[in-house]
Amino acid sequence: MSKKKQLQNAAELPEVSVSDDGDVRYLHLGTPWIQGSMKVDEPFDIELEYVQRMMAWLLFVDPAGVGKRHAMQLGLGAGAITKFCHKKLRTRTTAIELNPQVISICRAWFKLPQDGPRLRVVLGDAAVEIRNPEWLGTVDALAVDLYDHQAAAPVLDSAEFYADCRQLLTDDGCLTVNLFGRMSSYESSLQKLADVFGEDALWAFKPTREGNTIVLAQRTPTAPKRAELMERAEQVQARWDLPATKWLRVFSRVQPAAKA
User: Of 2, 95, 175, 189, whose CA is between 20 and 30 Å from 212?
Assistant: First the structure.
């Protein structure tokens, strides 16, 4: 992309701002809607419930090998997932963000580390960047949280986009995507994911109080028993202080839609 085109795109993006409420800091994109948060005293923990749930891919991998994996986040937000994967999980971590202001604000106000051997923040359009051959088949955990500045709808939600996401994943890789489970678009999004990954590859949480529903799609479907998931959840909770055992009360395989 040319420098002129980058400047033109940047001028069209919403203004980024920050607000504090007690010990929590929030990121906004031109509106009062919260697009990310951080506990000021615990900057590398994940503060929002739905963002914690985007780490559910940990239920499907051996905790002992997590540090050897590659996590990628599309849409940086306040950098919660990127920071957690980099600092807590010690994974190789990549984030792709369209708005240069978001990257600058994350580094200045949300403790996002500078790029290094295990961390890379890419300025670019996620829909384009994920087609870069460099990433194909390299991502073990892909987190997609791409909403417009009104937080009203996913910016990227086509079958073609989800197919590109699937191409990024390793054989046992997982996609986690933030959808609004109480919106009319949810069933449509779920069907697109099923068409790409297969109905037996999908798992989902019940909506949070705010309506966020995290859907997980496996590149290669597995069918772990409930006891196996609970054992893994206990390990995840003990290692990384995520409420993983509570997840299993509201997390299950997606049931195929009834045929007409």
Answer: 95
